[in-house]
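Input record (one chain):
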Amino acid sequence: MLNFVICDDMEAKSIRTVIEPMIKELNLGRIVLSETKPDRVLDYIKYNDTASVYFIDIELDTSVNGIDIARLIRDRDTSSYIVFITAHQEFAFLTYKYKLRVMDYLVKPLKPEDIRQCLESICELEKKRKAIEDDNHQKNNTLSIKSGCRQYRVNVEDIIYLEVIKNKIIIHTETGKISFICTLKDVRDKLSRMGNDIIMDCHKSYMININKVQGIDNMDIIMSNGDRCPLSRNHRKEIIDAFNN
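The corresponding structure, as predicted from the sequence alone:
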């Protein structure tokens, strides 16, 4: 969800009246600031790290104009959207001069259809960005495993538990098992590099997905598929704390 910021020294309230219902309809986010002066907007830019959409009048009747605000945004934030509001299209060349990567220009007097088209474009860009993030998350959250002549990609979130039998690791998932030759330490190292925080040691020969734990029975962990994994005394407190949280 996006935060919307409006800064226009003459029409901030009227712009908000038009934009707000459209944002809600498109489920894009919410308006967090609607200002006629840039002071609070400048503070927001300095201390906020949430993805935002800025509707800014280029020609503010203050010592700080819209170009100055946009330059500060881009100094701190490369991903937020900037939409300039202007009565003079000739100011547009300044945005190219300062490489401000402006999303759109809305020419006064503002037309609701122009605002809607701008918001719909932002909505489509956000969908594409989210799809890329989800794809990257999927890739970064996947273990590549070679079992015999076959290569597997296992999503960490789908793992129920891992166990060591002799020199093999067996990964148990909701859909079946995969065995491969490896050490638990090597798997642990791979997971660590991925930033894993759900696959935990519970025993010298077992690792469990804490999100797949159904319960803890004395020195056994009951998993979502009904299997039981041993819980050693060394890992008992850590596992119980994680389960309760």
